[in-house]
Amino acid sequence: MFTMRSTYTTPTIQQHRTLSEQKVRAEVVLGSPSANCGGVGICRVMAYGEGVGITCPKVNAWISITDEGKLRFEFQKASMEGRFMRRHFRWLLFQVLETYTVPYKLLGALKLEQRTIQPGIYQVWEVGDNMIVDF
Fold first, then answer.
1. d(CA 5, CA 61)
2. Torsions phi, psi for 65 (to 5 deg)
């Protein structure tokens, strides 16, 4: 009798651990800076509460550093309209069209040298109430 074995393993929650438990709460405006925050990508990242008076839709997020030294954004689904979920997280992929540098004053506590998010397509993990992207 032959048995088939699968070599594919699903990602475990352990793969989503961060280097430290330090996280910075932020508000993120999704979109491209050159398109006046239209389209896809990261248009602006601000400290939580700093976006008062900004008319662009904002998404609440936690920012941290992964064990590999990458920026991790945990976007909170509850703070996002359905149309933004579809536009930015469809197929569990997040596309960035333009380079974006996260302000130093926001990440200073995390001691991260690399603050720049490069253009590309990034995998998204849906974990609980969050959409997680490692840049």
1. 39
2. -120, 135
Rounded CA-CA distance 86/99 in Å is: 22
Left, alpha or beta for 109 (phi > 0: left; psi -120 to 50: alpha)? alpha
State both tokens at 6: 């699968």
Collapsing DSSP to helix, strand or coil, 54 comes out as coil
Give the whole-angstrom CA distance, residue 9 versus residue 135.
22
DSSP letter, residue 67: T
Dump pLDDT digits (tens) for 24-47: 999 999 999 999 889 999 999 999
Model pTM? 0.80
